[in-house]
């Protein structure tokens, strides 16, 4: 038990994205989205980086976002599990095409609005604050095919219409909003991120409408090398191997010190409270015959990162509002489309190609994170 304390109102929780867990891609009026069209397998990287056009489902490919882990029908079960861990907040995103199926309609889809309203109410039933990303790698395909995506300034108005509807409908239900997830990914995966071409007065608009806090994701550090030998292609971005650090099953450097440095850099730069909205370890989890996973490697990763976050707060004076791990339940990987790249405290019986019962099982890390939250981060053992 540590004597160093997180703030009393610190928001512990977990983070997800609509396309990676909801499923129900064509139910209740939802339209087709770019993220639906990213297959698992070798073609995925070319599709999400825009090197290969895939504007409709093609034979011979499996598209994991169609069903994902079926949160659309199982959200009550999953939120109850989050509540059992003691979540103070649940980060999730809105599927734009569930609210405006094409994206350019004047009136929203009531079925989509009702779904998210019920999800938010379910969170509040357990005292969980929704932390909602408006756009998480998600855009209606109609806006891509008819307008060219974010290269067309008309999308600013379509997005504004979406935001207006969301803010009015969910006033009192959602306190914390994020605009775009990892907007820098637009440079590296333009089809998945949707692309954004910036105009003369946009910087002034941003300056005059400053965010209340800065949210960011941290998984790993990257290394550079003058000769560019020993390059790793992990996670869209090539980097040099760091011989001083261990790596995950997918080659991501495990670097908690880099996390503390990042916290300090961002706070020094912006002088705004920070919110860590993604941090976690993707690993191959092997359940026993009862579905139990002894994921001590995940516990070790999270413990190290929570420890340095606590040090950044208590020793360095960094203000952090909350911490949401990616993802609290196994879901489809954004980068690879795999299910075997698991992050969750909750195991979902599903493989890379949609086989499995979708039944949920608690991993060892489930009770560990429950203890962390109950102790407000003082007990990390």
UniProtKB/TrEMBL annotation:
Active site: 278
EC number per UniProt: 3.2.1.86
Keyword entries, A-Z: Glycosidase, Hydrolase
Residues in the signal sequence: none
Catalytic EC class: hydrolase
Domain of life the protein comes from: Bacteria
Family, as annotated: Belongs to the glycosyl hydrolase 1 family.
Protein name: 6-phospho-beta-glucosidase
Chain's gene name: bglH
């Amino acid at each position: 038990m540590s004597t160093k304390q997180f703030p009393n109102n610190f928001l512990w929780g977990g983070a997800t994205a609509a396309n990676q867990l909801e499923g129900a891609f064509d139910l209740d009026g939802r339209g087709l989205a770019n993220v639906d069209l990213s297959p698992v397998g070798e073609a995925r990287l070319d599709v999400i980086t825009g090197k290969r056009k895939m504007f409709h489902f093609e034979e011979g490919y499996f598209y994991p976002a169609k069903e994902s882990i079926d949160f659309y029908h199982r959200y009550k079960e999953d939120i109850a599990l989050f509540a059992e861990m003691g979540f103070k907040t649940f980060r999730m995103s809105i599927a734009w095409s569930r609210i405006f199926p094409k994206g350019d309609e004047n009136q929203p889809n009531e079925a989509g609005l009702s779904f998210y309203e019920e999800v938010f109410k379910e969170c509040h039933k357990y005292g969980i604050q929704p932390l909602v990303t408006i756009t998480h790698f998600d855009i209606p395909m109609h806006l891509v095919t008819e307008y060219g995506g974010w290269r067309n300034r008309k999308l600013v108005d379509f997005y504004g219409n979406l935001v207006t509807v969301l803010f009015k409908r969910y006033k009192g239900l959602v306190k914390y909003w994020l605009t775009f997830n990892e907007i820098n990914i637009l440079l590296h995966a333009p089809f998945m991120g949707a692309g954004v071409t910036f105009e003369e007065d946009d910087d002034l608009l941003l300056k005059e409408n400053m965010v209340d806090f800065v949210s960011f994701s941290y998984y790993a550090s990257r290394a550079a090398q003058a000769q560019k030998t020993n390059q790793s292609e992990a996670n869209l971005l090539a980097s040099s191997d760091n011989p001083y650090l261990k790596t995950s099953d997918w080659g991501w450097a495990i670097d908690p010190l880099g996390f503390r440095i990042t916290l300090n850099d961002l706070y020094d730069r912006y002088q705004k409270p920070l919110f860590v909205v993604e941090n976690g370890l993707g690993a191959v989890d092997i359940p026993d015959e009862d579905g139990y996973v002894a994921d001590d490697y995940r516990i070790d990763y999270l413990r190290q990162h929570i420890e340095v976050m606590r040090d950044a707060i208590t020793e360095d004076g960094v203000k952090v509002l909350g911490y949401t791990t990616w993802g609290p339940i196994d879901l489809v990987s954004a980068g690879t489309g795999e299910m075997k790249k698991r992050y969750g405290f909750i195991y979902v019986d599903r493989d890379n190609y949609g086989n499995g019962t979708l039944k949920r099982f608690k991993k060892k890390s489930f009770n560990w994170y429950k203890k962390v939250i109950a102790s407000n981060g003082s007990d990390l053992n």
